[in-house]
Amino acid sequence: MPSVIFSGVPYMTAFTTYQYGFKVTRESDGKFYFTYNPSNNSELMRFQITWNGFEEQKRWNETAKKWQVMQLQPSEDCETYNYCGNFGVCTPSGSPKCRCMEGFGPRHPDQWRLGNWSGGCERRSPLQCQRSNSSGGEDGFKTLRSTKLPDFADVQSISSDPCREMCLNNCSCKAYAYVSGIQCMIWNGDLIDVQHSVDGGNTLYIRLADSEFGRSRMPTYVIILIVLAGLAFLAISIWLLWMLKRRLKVLPAATPACTSSKCELPVYDPSKSKEFSTDASGSTDLVIEGSQVNGSDLPMFNFNCIAAATDNFSEENKLGQGGFGLVYKGNLPGFFFISSA
């Protein structure tokens, strides 16, 4: 059987002696034997666990007459057991080193922000079999590549597709993996001590609810802010519309005299008014086309009346040009006015 490595120690391929040394042998009676043979049989090797929990591999140096350490584990934080807690993923080169698996969030967000990741993560959306109603679609799997697989897997001697179906049909199943030489691995408990490796590692398929697929999840506080902003915008718009209606002045309707094709202009006779005073500051009542307005207001004429009074804005009635346009003189019976166009 060819040499193999520990699935949780992907960097073992960096050492030539590992590629030659580790072997798994299965006997006919079902027993497995795990052995290590150095590439150079003349070398003396030893593995040991130190009193403080470190694993050491040492080689005897004949010249120096002492044991030399070839490798020492754990060598950094991510190799500390379950450093990021359950359902957390530790990346040695990450900043921060810990993150939750996709579909999970920190169990204790306040501690997580302070850099204490031991509390781990929890699922955001319950699986289909965990929901009280049957709404939503079938669960699916998210792929997590290049990982040191979690601890406490149940191993089944089946191929990849049946392995997926077995996990999907078991409500307790949290994830599965298919590893050459091991075959189907299924996790029915929490996913513990998961690491992400830049090189090597295996692919882990994490079971998630249907709601975690096909759309990006927006944080609750962002949704609340969007709703409040929309309500505020609607309230301001209604208020502005109400103010505009209050301020808006509707021009009087055009009279038949000024809208007729002949444009027969009404004749204004001051003597027919109830009271007429040449004093501009006095109270004068003006009668315009049968409509009475107070003397303090200006009389209103529509466009047809002004066009008729200025002879359709002829050059003969043009007085000049001001800041707002051309200025014309016009005549109406009983009135004299100047129009700006």
From TrEMBL:
This is non-specific serine/threonine protein kinase. The chain crosses the membrane at residues 221-242. It comes from the Eukaryota. The keyword Disulfide bond applies. It is an enzyme of class 2 (transferase). The keyword Membrane applies. Residues 129-209 form the Apple domain. It comes from Salix suchowensis. It holds the Pfam family PAN_2. It catalyses: L-threonyl-[protein] + ATP = O-phospho-L-threonyl-[protein] + ADP + H(+); L-seryl-[protein] + ATP = O-phospho-L-seryl-[protein] + ADP + H(+). Its EC number is 2.7.11.1. InterPro entries: EGF (IPR000742), Kinase-like_dom_sf (IPR011009), Pan_app (IPR003609), S_locus_glycoprot_dom (IPR000858).
